[in-house]
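writing this on my phone so excuse typos. first protein, seq and then structure
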Amino acid sequence: MPTHAEQRLIAYTPEQLFDLVADVGKYPQFLPWCVKAIVKSRTETELVADLTIGFGPFRETFTSRVTLERPSRIRVSYEKGPFRYLNNVWTFTPDPRGCLVDFFVDFEFRSRLLQNAIGVVFNEGVRLMVSAFIKRARDTYGTPHVTPRAQPDLTKA
């Protein structure tokens, strides 16, 4: 049952970071191990998407329901696929230096083989994923303008 919680100060606005995370259809362009994303339905406050993740010899597709609470929170709940459960929450809090991002993920695969395989690389995988979003923000919005009080490495992954 891998669980990960992380908080990062990132020098972009909550709205910008919210939009990046909410743009699920573009995940295969920049997220490690995300090989396919299909948004099946979308409203202003919710979307349902199929994501296919692949690592090593494993490839699994799952459906999740994403609740969009613009611009402060994105909640991901599991619908169907290889997991027993999946919970993921992104929280975006304004800060004078940018945005304080809280990221939480908790899941368990049905298959012990998959669970054991991901367990070995889970923490590194989550760090890579968060770094991929930060890089995507730089690629999309350019180099942030950080105030002198800000930490110099706000966007370094």
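second protein below, same order as before
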Amino acid sequence: MTEKKRWMVYATWGVALATGVVVGILLVSKEGNDSGLARLLNHTGEANVVAGASYELVLARHYLCGVRDEEHVSVRTNQLADVMGDYNGWEIVQAEPVKMILMKREQDIAPVCKENGHIGIAADGMLALFHGLPAEQDVVQTFYRIDTAKMEASLPKEEWENLKRGIRIRNLAEYNSVLSTYGEYQWSGQ
């Protein structure tokens, strides 16, 4: 990482941390809890960050297949600036005095979709991504309604049956390929 990028990351996280501390001070002040305010401020009135205190990072990942997951990481406040360099490219969603939520939009499908994802036809005629086989109806993501009459007339019977049973998706290339292949059968409503 270049020195300029590193500086930008530290500056961004510093602002977020300061914002979280200020919000916490305001909340405590609003509640009239002077003892809480005293803990957040030192005798000079500046934010008091305790070196051994713990700060929670919530890492929220949003995948192309519609899956969202979270990971919780505990970091000592005196190590926060160093750790934040590891999360370059993550968006700060929320900053609080003891917790920060970061979000990243992954340009991939989720590991759970790679493990057991199938694209098929849902009971309502929608092209969908399922966790498991379509017969189990555990829909992860829906795409669009399929013109089943057009598809049955155009596709070989075996290919149509494969789609009804579910086409296994193991990676982003397969996911995109299947969506592209069946996009021409999207129901136009006419």
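The chain has seven helices and eight strands. thats all i got for now
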